[in-house]
Design brief:
alpha+beta, Glutaredoxin, Immunoglobulin-like, 2 domains, 4 helices
């Protein structure tokens, strides 16, 4: 009986030792595969050898074009709302005053023909009229809610502006980063020069108007003398305000585009001039074309993404 037990123990011991030679390496291999499977993938799907780009969001800045005129008595309604909304949202709201007034009773010293193509495209023929993110045409009464909605949206495009002034020339470097794939879109860059703090009389139909007794401009006079006009469009830096096309090769996920140019700032007082940049998806349709993001910088300074 005892010899049988010894023989049985010997067989079991031999079997276990042989099995361990197979089981232990298998366990080690399985553990290694588990560790490898848990590591973050760093392959570049584009074959560049770097990390795979991931979707990135950037600070969203709403953009408004205010079609206005110093001769326009109802235009202070929109300009006042823009000033109030900028106090609320700070740098997340960028607006540009597109002043129309070529001659006669509609004379405006800040008039420009450059933006007439935008007015024609969107059917703008009344003043004041707002255009939010090159997508939504608004009146003074609907402007505020549309700005709030635009500011709350996300953006997958980041814009950095770097400026250096030498004499009357401003060297401008614009860097655009794409946090999503826009390679199938018609992406354009718009650059313009604007000016703050311009003083000129503003016609004001709110003055003494019983419908606006609670408005700050009710007692401001008509015209309002030396009214301060901010964000006044001065000239386009890109070929037009419709924008210059950004090459498709730069607009994919993780892509980057850099534009270097020189802007004349002749006649612009120090601290009053700004560069405004827009990156737009121009679909050719007024309802689906939109500003993907906007950025502004005081001339002589840098504004990061």
């Amino acid at each position: 009986m005892e010899s049988r037990q010894i023989l049985l123990f010997s067989v079991i011991k031999t079997y276990c030792m042989k099995s361990a030679r197979f089981i232990l390496p298998a366990l080690a291999l399985g553990f290694a595969l588990l560790i490898t499977g848990c590591k973050k993938k760093t392959d570049d799907t584009n074959g560049g050898g770097g990390p795979t780009p991931t979707t990135t969001t950037y600070t969203r800045r709403a953009y408004v074009e205010d079609f206005t005129g110093t001769w326009c008595g109802w235009c202070p309604l929109m300009s006042y709302t823009l000033e109030q909304k900028q106090q609320q949202h700070g740098s997340k709201l960028i607006f540009v005053g597109m002043h129309y007034g070529p001659t006669g009773g509609q004379f405006d010293p800040y008039h420009s023909n450059t933006f007439l193509s935008i007015m024609n495209r969107y059917g703008i023929n009344a003043f004041p009229t707002g255009l939010v993110n090159r997508q939504t045409v608004v009146s003074s009464s609907t402007l505020a809610s549309n700005i709030d909605f635009a500011v709350a949206a996300e953006s997958y495009v980041g814009i950095k502006l770097e400026t250096t002034v030498t004499g009357t020339d401003c060297a401008l470097k614009t860097t655009v980063k794409f946090g999503s794939d826009f390679s199938k879109k018609n992406v354009k860059l718009v650059l313009m020069l604007i000016e703050d703090g311009l003083k000129y009389n503003q016609v004001n139909y709110l003055a003494g108007n019983s419908s606006y007794q609670t408005h700050p401009y009710y007692s401001a006079g008509n015209p309002m003398p030396n009214y301060t006009h901010n964000g006044v469009f001065r000239r386009s830096v890109t070929a037009s305000l419709e924008g210059d096309v950004i090459p498709v090769a730069n607009t994919g996920l993780g892509g980057q585009y850099i534009n270097n140019t020189v802007v004349s700032v002749t006649g612009i007082p120090t601290g009053k001039g700004k560069i405004v940049a827009l990156v737009i998806n121009d679909t050719g349709s007024n309802t689906s074309t939109q500003v993907l993001n906007a950025q502004s910088v005081v001339i002589g300074q840098t504004q990061d993404f």
